[in-house]
Design brief:
By secondary structure, this protein is of the alpha/beta class. 37% of the residues lie in helices and 13% in strands. Helix 1 packs across helix 4 and helix 9 runs antiparallel to helix 10. The radius of gyration is 21 Å and the shape is elongated. It starts with a helix and ends with a helix.
Length: 295
């Protein structure tokens, strides 16, 4: 059974999640405070997993299995669970040791095959075979990891993918862990992105105004900036970087809603965060192309 210190630590993590972003919903699976064994230490990191649930299995995927376990592997199978869908949601499954890491390591100072005893784990509802992670799921994950690292006194380098802990037998999660650790590091530095909708106004730089044929100091909706970029309104990677930079200073909005809320302006996409990540992808692709051509 978890110790009182284990339970208190989880409560502190949840409090930290709320401090980072109050729009992230946190629920507690009944019995969480009595689930799992006692750590007997402060965990030193966290392993990132997906639950391999069918994309049609709903918001919480295999949460029931993660809570109660399966044949040959008793639950809990992680301390936390991140939902799929358009709302950032986290479930607290257990305060104590969970059966999630399995054989692997050594890594980040954790002895070989000892991940359960030293590391927290989170499962995410995702089939792991091509299902796209929603922006809300990614945001919930990055905030959770940052909160855990803050409470246990570690940096983003102590967030590990299951595929990194056990590279010969695991593939989860399917995204790049270096990218995820970068997101976590930004939050730990205090760079938690504020809510932004497609209808929010951004003040354009003089360069952007010149490119778009607008008066210096003009403002444009986020949707307008993204539409300009998507229509090919750039000439090289430097231009894309400058367009991307205009998304980082939303002003003039009269109403803020969670940045995972559905947005319909300009018929572009249902999520601002996802659009921002798509623009970043354009940046990376264009830079790679130009680097190849310059050789």
């Amino acid at each position: 059974m978890p110790s009182s210190a284990d339970v208190t630590r989880i409560r502190r993590i949840v409090d930290q999640i709320k401090r980072y972003d109050s729009s992230v919903k946190v629920t507690f699976v009944s019995g969480w405070q009595n689930r799992g064994g006692s750590f007997g230490r402060t965990p030193v990191g966290m392993i990132d997993h997906h639950d391999a649930s069918a994309s049609s299995s709903g918001t919480w995927g295999a949460l029931g299995v993660v809570t109660s376990g399966r044949a040959g592997l008793p639950g809990p199978l992680s301390q936390f669970f991140v939902a799929r869908g358009s709302t950032p949601q986290i479930a607290v499954v257990a305060a104590g040791v969970a059966n999630h890491a399995g054989l692997g390591g050594p890594k980040i100072g954790v002895p070989r095959n000892s991940g359960n005893a030293y590391l927290y784990g989170t499962e995410k509802a995702n089939n792991g075979t091509g299902e796209r992670y929603s922006a809300a799921s990614i945001h919930a994950t990055e905030v959770l990891f940052a909160a855990v690292m803050k409470v246990i006194g570690q940096d983003a380098g102590h967030v590990v993918g299951h595929k990194e802990w056990a590279p010969t037998r695991k593939i989860d999660p399917t995204y790049d862990m270096g990218w995820m650790r970068g997101l976590v590091a930004k939050i730990l530095r205090g760079e938690v992105g504020k809510d932004m909708e497609l209808t929010d106004k951004v003040k354009l730089s003089n360069w952007a105004c010149d490119q778009m044929g607008l008066k210096p100091g003009s403002k444009l909706s986020v949707a307008g900036v993204l539409a300009y970029a998507a229509a090919g309104g750039y000439r090289n990677a430097e231009d894309i970087d400058k367009i991307l930079a205009t998304l980082r200073d939303a002003i003039g909005s009269t109403e803020k809603t969670p940045r995972q809320a559905l947005a319909t302006a300009a018929g572009l996409h249902d999520n601002v965060l996802e659009l921002q990540r798509q623009v970043q992808w354009l940046v990376d692709q264009e830079k790679a192309r130009q680097a190849k051509e310059s050789k």
